[in-house]
Amino acid sequence: GQQVMQIPQYQHVQEGEDFTTYCNSSTTLSNIQWYKQRPGGHPVFLIQLVKSGEVKKQKRLTFQFGEAKKNSSLHITATQTTDVGTYFCAGPGTGGFKTIFGAGTRLFVKA
Amino acid sequence: NAGVMQNPRHLVRRRGQEARLRCSPMKGHSHVYWYRQLPEEGLKFMVYLQKENIIDESGMPKERFSAEFPKEGPSILRIQQVVRGDSAAYFCASSGGAGGSYEQYFGPGTRLTVT
Protein backbone atom coordinates (compact mmCIF):
# COMPACT_ATOMS: atom_id res chain seq x y z
CA GLY A 1 0.00 0.00 0.00
CA GLN A 2 0.92 3.65 -0.22
CA GLN A 3 3.53 4.75 2.29
CA VAL A 4 5.00 8.02 3.44
CA MET A 5 8.30 7.59 5.25
CA GLN A 6 10.25 10.08 7.30
CA ILE A 7 13.79 10.12 8.55
CA PRO A 8 15.26 10.48 11.03
CA GLN A 9 12.86 9.31 13.69
CA TYR A 10 14.58 11.45 16.33
CA GLN A 11 17.09 14.28 16.21
CA HIS A 12 18.90 15.87 19.13
CA VAL A 13 20.56 19.20 18.41
CA GLN A 14 22.24 21.93 20.36
CA GLU A 15 20.44 25.24 20.20
CA GLY A 16 21.76 27.17 17.22
CA GLU A 17 22.47 24.08 15.13
CA ASP A 18 20.58 23.32 11.94
CA PHE A 19 18.06 20.52 11.54
CA THR A 20 16.66 18.68 8.52
CA THR A 21 13.94 16.06 8.21
CA TYR A 22 13.28 14.11 5.05
CA CYS A 23 10.07 12.70 3.69
CA ASN A 24 9.70 10.07 0.97
CA SER A 25 6.54 8.79 -0.63
CA SER A 26 6.12 5.46 -2.39
CA THR A 27 3.91 7.22 -4.96
CA THR A 28 3.90 10.57 -6.73
CA LEU A 29 2.01 13.17 -4.73
CA SER A 30 -0.16 15.98 -6.01
CA ASN A 31 0.90 17.99 -2.97
CA ILE A 32 2.68 17.59 0.33
CA GLN A 33 1.86 19.20 3.64
CA TRP A 34 3.92 19.72 6.77
CA TYR A 35 2.60 19.86 10.30
CA LYS A 36 4.17 20.47 13.68
CA GLN A 37 3.02 18.92 16.93
CA ARG A 38 4.35 20.22 20.22
CA PRO A 39 4.69 17.71 23.08
CA GLY A 40 1.22 17.09 24.50
CA GLY A 41 -0.38 19.19 21.79
CA HIS A 42 -2.13 18.72 18.51
CA PRO A 43 -0.78 18.94 14.95
CA VAL A 44 -0.67 22.42 13.48
CA PHE A 45 -0.51 23.04 9.74
CA LEU A 46 2.72 24.69 8.59
CA ILE A 47 2.69 24.70 4.81
CA GLN A 48 1.59 23.00 1.61
CA LEU A 49 3.80 22.47 -1.45
CA VAL A 50 2.23 21.76 -4.81
CA LYS A 51 4.70 22.36 -7.63
CA SER A 52 7.59 20.14 -8.67
CA GLY A 53 10.84 21.56 -7.28
CA GLU A 54 9.01 24.13 -5.19
CA VAL A 55 10.87 25.84 -2.35
CA LYS A 56 9.11 27.89 0.30
CA LYS A 57 10.49 29.71 3.32
CA GLN A 58 8.95 30.69 6.59
CA LYS A 59 11.50 32.65 8.61
CA ARG A 60 14.06 30.01 9.64
CA LEU A 61 12.15 27.13 8.03
CA THR A 62 12.79 26.07 4.43
CA PHE A 63 10.53 23.54 2.72
CA GLN A 64 11.34 21.75 -0.52
CA PHE A 65 9.29 19.52 -2.81
CA GLY A 66 11.30 17.20 -5.04
CA GLU A 67 11.32 17.34 -8.80
CA ALA A 68 9.60 13.97 -9.04
CA LYS A 69 7.05 15.02 -6.39
CA LYS A 70 7.87 11.95 -4.29
CA ASN A 71 10.09 13.51 -1.67
CA SER A 72 10.28 16.60 0.45
CA SER A 73 12.41 18.13 3.16
CA LEU A 74 12.10 20.61 5.98
CA HIS A 75 15.21 22.46 7.07
CA ILE A 76 15.41 24.64 10.17
CA THR A 77 18.30 27.07 10.41
CA ALA A 78 19.72 27.91 13.83
CA THR A 79 17.26 25.95 15.93
CA GLN A 80 15.68 27.46 19.01
CA THR A 81 14.06 25.75 21.99
CA THR A 82 10.69 26.82 20.61
CA ASP A 83 11.29 24.50 17.64
CA VAL A 84 10.94 21.44 19.89
CA GLY A 85 8.24 19.05 18.73
CA THR A 86 7.43 16.47 16.10
CA TYR A 87 7.35 17.41 12.46
CA PHE A 88 5.09 15.42 10.17
CA CYS A 89 4.84 15.37 6.42
CA ALA A 90 1.55 14.29 4.86
CA GLY A 91 0.24 13.57 1.40
CA PRO A 92 -3.06 12.65 -0.22
CA GLY A 93 -3.88 8.98 -0.12
CA THR A 94 -4.86 6.92 -3.13
CA GLY A 95 -8.18 8.20 -4.37
CA GLY A 96 -7.42 11.63 -2.99
CA PHE A 97 -9.78 11.61 -0.05
CA LYS A 98 -7.65 10.65 2.90
CA THR A 99 -4.34 12.01 4.08
CA ILE A 100 -1.37 9.76 4.79
CA PHE A 101 0.97 11.04 7.49
CA GLY A 102 4.59 10.09 7.88
CA ALA A 103 5.67 8.77 11.27
CA GLY A 104 7.23 12.12 12.11
CA THR A 105 10.63 13.36 13.19
CA ARG A 106 10.88 14.33 16.81
CA LEU A 107 13.21 17.26 17.40
CA PHE A 108 14.90 17.84 20.73
CA VAL A 109 16.77 21.10 21.24
CA LYS A 110 19.25 21.49 24.06
CA ALA A 111 19.77 25.01 25.33
CA ASN B 1 -12.80 30.95 19.16
CA ALA B 2 -14.07 29.23 16.04
CA GLY B 3 -11.46 26.47 16.05
CA VAL B 4 -12.05 22.73 16.03
CA MET B 5 -13.49 21.54 19.31
CA GLN B 6 -13.32 18.08 20.76
CA ASN B 7 -14.82 16.69 23.90
CA PRO B 8 -14.18 15.23 26.23
CA ARG B 9 -10.48 16.02 26.42
CA HIS B 10 -9.86 13.00 28.61
CA LEU B 11 -11.99 9.88 28.82
CA VAL B 12 -11.53 6.87 31.03
CA ARG B 13 -13.48 3.71 30.28
CA ARG B 14 -13.40 0.20 31.67
CA ARG B 15 -12.98 -2.70 29.28
CA GLY B 16 -16.29 -3.51 27.63
CA GLN B 17 -17.79 -0.04 27.96
CA GLU B 18 -18.58 2.32 25.13
CA ALA B 19 -16.63 5.47 24.29
CA ARG B 20 -18.17 8.40 22.45
CA LEU B 21 -15.89 11.09 21.14
CA ARG B 22 -17.28 14.33 19.78
CA CYS B 23 -15.88 16.78 17.28
CA SER B 24 -17.24 20.13 16.19
CA PRO B 25 -15.45 21.31 13.06
CA MET B 26 -14.27 24.80 12.40
CA LYS B 27 -17.05 27.17 11.40
CA GLY B 28 -17.80 26.83 7.71
CA HIS B 29 -16.06 23.45 7.38
CA SER B 30 -18.06 20.43 6.33
CA HIS B 31 -15.20 17.92 5.99
CA VAL B 32 -14.08 15.97 9.02
CA TYR B 33 -11.26 13.48 9.55
CA TRP B 34 -10.56 11.24 12.51
CA TYR B 35 -7.06 10.04 13.39
CA ARG B 36 -5.63 7.83 16.09
CA GLN B 37 -2.25 8.44 17.64
CA LEU B 38 -0.44 6.08 19.95
CA PRO B 39 2.26 7.52 22.26
CA GLU B 40 5.43 8.44 20.38
CA GLU B 41 3.84 7.44 17.07
CA GLY B 42 2.38 9.13 14.02
CA LEU B 43 -1.18 9.87 13.05
CA LYS B 44 -3.13 6.98 11.64
CA PHE B 45 -6.04 7.90 9.38
CA MET B 46 -9.33 6.34 10.44
CA VAL B 47 -12.22 7.93 8.57
CA TYR B 48 -13.18 10.90 6.42
CA LEU B 49 -16.72 12.24 6.52
CA GLN B 50 -18.78 14.96 5.00
CA LYS B 51 -22.14 16.03 6.32
CA GLU B 52 -24.34 12.92 6.50
CA ASN B 53 -21.88 10.86 4.45
CA ILE B 54 -18.96 8.58 5.18
CA ILE B 55 -16.57 9.13 2.28
CA ASP B 56 -13.61 6.95 3.25
CA GLU B 57 -13.53 4.62 6.24
CA SER B 58 -10.66 2.48 5.04
CA GLY B 59 -8.59 3.17 8.16
CA MET B 60 -11.23 2.23 10.65
CA PRO B 61 -11.43 -1.25 12.21
CA LYS B 62 -14.42 -3.15 10.85
CA GLU B 63 -15.70 -4.12 14.26
CA ARG B 64 -16.60 -1.99 17.26
CA PHE B 65 -15.78 1.34 15.60
CA SER B 66 -18.26 3.63 13.87
CA ALA B 67 -18.41 7.27 12.91
CA GLU B 68 -21.08 9.71 11.88
CA PHE B 69 -21.42 13.35 10.96
CA PRO B 70 -25.09 14.26 11.11
CA LYS B 71 -26.72 17.19 9.40
CA GLU B 72 -26.94 18.94 12.74
CA GLY B 73 -24.49 18.58 15.57
CA PRO B 74 -20.96 17.32 15.99
CA SER B 75 -19.23 14.38 14.38
CA ILE B 76 -19.17 11.34 16.65
CA LEU B 77 -16.59 8.57 16.80
CA ARG B 78 -18.03 5.64 18.68
CA ILE B 79 -16.04 2.73 20.06
CA GLN B 80 -18.07 -0.14 21.44
CA GLN B 81 -16.79 -2.70 23.95
CA VAL B 82 -13.48 -0.94 24.38
CA VAL B 83 -10.31 -2.94 24.96
CA ARG B 84 -6.96 -1.83 26.39
CA GLY B 85 -5.51 -1.56 22.90
CA ASP B 86 -7.96 1.26 22.15
CA SER B 87 -6.11 3.53 24.58
CA ALA B 88 -4.75 6.35 22.46
CA ALA B 89 -5.21 9.99 21.54
CA TYR B 90 -7.96 10.52 19.00
CA PHE B 91 -7.72 13.66 16.93
CA CYS B 92 -10.35 15.19 14.77
CA ALA B 93 -9.49 17.58 11.97
CA SER B 94 -11.63 19.65 9.66
CA SER B 95 -10.98 21.22 6.29
CA GLY B 96 -12.73 23.56 3.95
CA GLY B 97 -12.55 21.28 0.95
CA ALA B 98 -12.70 17.67 -0.09
CA GLY B 99 -9.79 15.31 0.06
CA GLY B 100 -6.12 15.49 0.98
CA SER B 101 -5.27 18.67 -0.88
CA TYR B 102 -6.68 21.02 1.74
CA GLU B 103 -4.97 21.99 4.94
CA GLN B 104 -6.47 20.43 7.99
CA TYR B 105 -7.18 22.11 11.29
CA PHE B 106 -6.87 19.80 14.25
CA GLY B 107 -8.74 19.79 17.49
CA PRO B 108 -7.01 19.34 20.86
CA GLY B 109 -7.75 15.61 20.86
CA THR B 110 -9.42 13.19 23.22
CA ARG B 111 -7.12 11.06 25.32
CA LEU B 112 -8.85 7.73 25.84
CA THR B 113 -7.65 5.45 28.61
CA VAL B 114 -9.11 1.98 28.94
CA THR B 115 -8.62 0.35 32.32
How is this structure best described in words?
The complex is a heterodimer of chains A (111) and B (115). Chain A is globular, with a radius of gyration of 13 Å. Chain A starts with a strand and ends with a strand. Helices cover 0% and strands 55% of the residues of chain A. By secondary structure, chain A is mainly β. In chain A, the strands form 2 sheets. In chain A, strands 2, 4, 5, 9, 10 and 11 form a 6-stranded mixed β-sheet that branches. The model of chain A has no long low-confidence stretch (mean pLDDT 95). Chain A has no helices and 11 strands. Chain B is mostly beta strands and 115 residues long. Chain B is globular, with a radius of gyration of 13 Å. The N and C termini of chain B lie far apart (34 Å). The mean pLDDT of chain B is 93. At the A-B interface, strand 5, strand 9 and strand 10 of A face strand 5 and strand 10 of B.
